[in-house]
Amino acid sequence: MFQDPSFQITVTPLQYVLSIISGILVGFSLGLIGGGGSILAIPLLLYFVGLANGIAPGTPEYSYITHLTLGTTALAVGINAYINSYMHFKRGNVRVSEGIIFTIPGIIGDIIGAYLSHLMSGALILFLFGFLMIAVAIRMWKSKCNPNKSILSNNSHKLTLRERIKIDKVLPAGFLVGFASGYFGIGGGFLVVPGLLFSTGLDMLRAVGTSLIAVGTFGVAAAITYAVYGYVDIVISLLYLVGGVAGGYAGSAIASRMPRQTLRKLFAIIIILVAIYTMYVNRVGVVDLLHFL
């Protein structure tokens, strides 16, 4: 088990400032290109803010810093999602019933994922996280930027809740998405939206709005689980949140004037490069993976 190795990190004033800047960058990317932008929150906190600087991967100290980063970003992403869900709710893009039904099994998976993550080395988690980043980048590269597109009939909103919800799909989909969110300390909006489309009768626009209920709940639930083991820095999380709200507002304000499809592809390339760097730095995680298997 990779518990707190009984040492305390010292966060400098500069790192607090960099935390705000990181939040701005993440929020700006989310506002500009939509889902997937938050995938850089963890690498930014580790390597740009510098919480992991000077600590060798594979050590107990590195695992502690990794778990602290996961818990801290989970809290910031969760609160930010709740804030955004209110704005979507006012526009009529949130289906509370579908969101709750999807979220309930997800909370169970989320807590289990966060607990299992606590048992793993930081290098292993981040090495696997690199694969997730690449998967997100590929999906971002291939996706079309049409938030009003529906995968079902435009009359799908007239169906009853029982007709829209596929219980045999929503339970495993919610659980698996929640598990990934808890394990990696992410809100997982880029996983929740496909999960909702797969298991409910929502169109794309309502799936995006409704997903924020799950993203917020998964983030907060994961943060609480990490906090039990001392893996949440409230100050950094709040600074991340403040920067994220400001960046999100700026990104949304100019999104309509930018070539979003081109930006998504450029951002996908950036994510892949960061993923390669993350996997290289944490290559010792391969040894931990082999031991785990």
From TrEMBL:
GO terms for cellular component: plasma membrane. The keyword Cell membrane applies. The keyword Zinc does not apply. Keywords: Cell membrane, Membrane, Transmembrane, Transmembrane helix. It is a multi-pass membrane protein. It holds the Pfam family TauE. The chain crosses the membrane at residues 14-32, 62-83, 95-116, 122-141, 170-193, 213-242, 263-280. Its main location: membrane. It is found in: Cell membrane; Membrane. InterPro entries: TM_pro_TauE-like, TSUP/Inactive_protease-like. Belongs to the 4-toluene sulfonate uptake permease (TSUP) (TC 2.A.102) family. This is Probable membrane transporter protein.
